[in-house]
Amino acid sequence: MITRNSTLLKELQKVVIIVISTLVMAVGLNMFLIPADVFSNGATGVAQLLAALLPPLSTGAYLLLVNIPIALLGWFKVGKLFTFYSFLHVALTTFFLEIVPVTGLSEDILLNAVFGGVITAMGAALPLKWGASAGGLDIIALVLARFSDRPVGTYFFLLNGIIVLTAGLVFNWESALYTLLAVYVSSRVIDTIHTRHVKVTAMIVTKQPDILREAIHQHITRGITRIPAKGGYDYSEKEVLMIVITRYELYALREVIEEVDPDAFTNIVTTAGIFGMFRKND
Description:
It is found in: Cell membrane. The chain is α+β, with helices and mostly antiparallel strands. The chain has 2 domains: 4-193, no CATH class; 199-270, Alpha-Beta Plaits, CATH 3.30.70.120. Helix content is 61%, strand content 11%. A 4-stranded antiparallel beta sheet has the order 2-3-1-4, with helices on one face. The longest helix is centred in the N-terminal third of the chain and has 30 residues, at 4-33. 43% of the residues are buried.
């Protein structure tokens, strides 16, 4: 079982990662995207649009306001700890956006779109590897994905498409096209660091299938197939728990396995596609 000290150490590491990632994101916004009138993806892009249309408040302030109702949704629908760290990411991003000066390093809008997209994506992807997110549309897309068999990436595409379209209608289509470029670059970087849109199949060989199955279902809303198995060396009776999840949920699954049955053997393989039931309540 995981000791109390090791758990506290992991949580401390997660906080440090979030602090670093929020500073990186603020630099990408205030030194590249905002000076060039290029909009980011997700709730940050929404906050940029609101700040441009309603200037009394800054991008950081709008980012915090937009994420308050989203955090409440995530608290009840996604998970309390996940939502806490996601909102912490938002709060720290707001803080650093007020601290880091809005200063353009280049007048080339193309360079700003590319480098701004890369830097903000790094700030958004790092917490994903540690079981948190940048909040905002991450949580909305995750909630929507739990009520359908469509991948999380579909909802990210639709929600970010609204941001690009709004940028074109409200400002100019050149800004919209560069925003689309920044969103594309961000998605590629995030997929490189943490491919959250891809489904994977986890095959868990365990001697405690009942306890582990119950623990998994407390954290992940996916169906599990139980397959009888026997150890090749000791001929002990085991079971293989097969579950298809998004990589967004991979961190939570690993935490549950390490806590409930650290001796379990888990094989993770990329899933090309699925047919039929995907959610537990199907």
